[in-house]
Amino acid sequence: MLDDPTASYEGSNPLCGDRITMMLGISDGVVREVAFTGRGCAISQASASLLTDEIKGKTVEEVEKMTPDDLLELIGIEISPARLKCALLSLDTVAHALADASAEEETQPLPGQ
């Protein structure tokens, strides 16, 4: 867990009960720290773990460009269509965290205003 993440989001898959909270520590446009908590099936948890390793040290722009195929390649095993939502939950959660952080950044007043 990160004590003071720059961005965080809790994603869920109501069909099977998976829940993941992704927390990002972003500085100078780079993901410096990343952590997750969650519960659910092995695929959703393994996917989140692999994704945290992959995005640490990357720029926000690089992370935003990641595709489902990129994550599925990282996982490295065949995922059945019924389990795709489980495998992609972490990527969707990271995308929401970054979008929320970006929206919050846009609403912050500039220093001196």
The whole-angstrom Rg is: 14 Å
Q: What is the strand content?
A: 15-25%
Which class do the helix and strand fractions yield? alpha+beta
Approximate helicity band:
40-55%
Provide a descriptive summary of the structure in words:
- The protein is of the alpha+beta class and 113 residues long.
- The chain has 4 helices and 3 strands; from the N terminus they run βββαααα.
- A 3-stranded antiparallel beta sheet has the order 1-2-3.
- The mean pLDDT is 90.
Sum this structure up briefly.
The chain is α+β, with helices and mostly antiparallel strands and 113 residues long. It has a single domain, classed as Sufe protein. Chain: A. Helices cover 45% and strands 24% of the residues.
Which helices and strands appear, and what pairs or packs with what?
Blueprint lengths: L6 E7 L4 E10 L2 E10 L2 H14 L4 H5 L3 H8 L8 H24 L6
Antiparallel strand pairs: 1-2, 2-3
Helix pairs in contact: 1-3, 1-4
How would you describe this structure in keywords?
single chain; 113 residues; alpha+beta; Sufe protein. Chain: A; three-stranded antiparallel β-sheet; 3 strands; 24% strand; globular
